[in-house]
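Exercise 7b. Backbone tokens:
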């Protein structure tokens, strides 16, 4: 998944529980920031089960039966929470010319509401564990519990909460496909970054201008369930949508997860938020984990390895990210 330009960190964090309540808000010139927790309580146990259920299908690699089955399961879950569903199908081309049967899943809360927020994550799995320390594993598929399933799991839990707790704004949950077919490390093909985020590139390329204008902002959730994860401010997010970065990091402080969202810069990442910003013109940030001192990868020790499984998913991390996003939504 993604290209990282700056390495950053394995760090253990202590996260605390939080109860979301109240509705006290402070109006500023460029933002509405709740002064105390607002909105429903994010259920990390539920999100964990959503993550597990995706992994139960096996690696959701492109053109596989597991991929197709999981896609239909995701659709059923969102539909069960009253969301309007649009499956966006397309045949995309991988870096090696492979035809990829792709499906972005668009699930809309209050689809007729013109004032909207975009939440997104990718749902496909990396076909190759090309960063695995054991060379024998580097052409095996990745289960992608964190690098794929965790972001969708957080969105599903938020959709479940919205079905029970009204929000005046519309929300589009977009599950991007074909994010992780980027050039593998063992390939001789040059990696210019364009082989990644294929589903997001397609979505952004066909997104009508009027639809794009309806979004206040977007938040991409990527690798949001890893053990001991922290979320530094990603460089491209700051470049394209600094006010949204500030909004999200303030929300994390309010709900008690400031230590998980340190007020520090991380690396510059090629990820699904780039075409959303560049092609669709929607200010979108990336909440993505960073491990500053991890030798295996700044994305953490399980990134693009066969160890990206449920044994390394942390409910505390899911809670921190999920409650922060709830705070952002209900502060608008």
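Sequence design result:
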């Amino acid at each position: 998944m993604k290209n990282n330009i700056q390495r950053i960190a394995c760090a253990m964090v202590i996260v605390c529980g939080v109860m979301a309540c109240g509705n006290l808000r402070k109006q500023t010139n460029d933002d509405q920031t709740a002064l105390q927790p607002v909105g429903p309580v994010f259920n990390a146990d539920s999100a964990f089960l959503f993550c597990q259920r995706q992994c139960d299908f096996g690696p959701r690699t492109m053109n596989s039966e597991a991929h197709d089955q999981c896609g239909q399961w995701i659709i059923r879950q969102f539909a069960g929470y009253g969301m309007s569903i649009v499956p966006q199908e397309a045949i995309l081309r991988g870096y090696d010319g492979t035809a990829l049967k792709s499906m972005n899943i668009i699930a809309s809360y209050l689809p007729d509401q013109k004032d909207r927020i975009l939440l997104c994550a990718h749902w496909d799995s990396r076909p190759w564990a090309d960063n695995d320390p054991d060379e024998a594993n580097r052409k095996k598929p990745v289960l992608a519990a964190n690098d794929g399933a965790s972001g969708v799991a957080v969105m599903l839990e938020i959709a479940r909460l919205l079905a029970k707790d009204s929000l005046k704004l519309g929300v589009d949950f977009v599950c991007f496909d074909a994010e992780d077919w980027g050039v593998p490390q063992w390939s001789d093909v040059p990696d210019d970054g364009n082989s990644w985020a294929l589903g997001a590139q397609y979505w952004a390329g066909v997104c009508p201008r009027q639809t794009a204008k309806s979004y206040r902002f977007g938040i991409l959730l990527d690798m949001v369930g890893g053990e001991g994860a922290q979320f530094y401010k990603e460089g491209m997010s700051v470049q394209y949508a600094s006010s949204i970065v500030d909004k999200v990091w303030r929300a994390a402080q309010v709900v008690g997860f400031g230590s998980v969202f340190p007020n520090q810069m991380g690396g510059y990442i090629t990820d699904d938020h780039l075409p959303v910003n560049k092609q669709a013109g929607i200010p979108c940030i990336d909440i993505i984990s960073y491990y500053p001192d991890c030798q295996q990868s700044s994305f953490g020790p399980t990134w693009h390895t066969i160890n990206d499984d449920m044994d390394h998913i942390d409910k505390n991390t899911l809670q921190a990210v999920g409650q922060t996003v709830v705070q952002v939504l209900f502060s608008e």
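Instructor comment: Confidence is low (pLDDT under 50) at residues 5-30. The chain has eight helices and ten strands.
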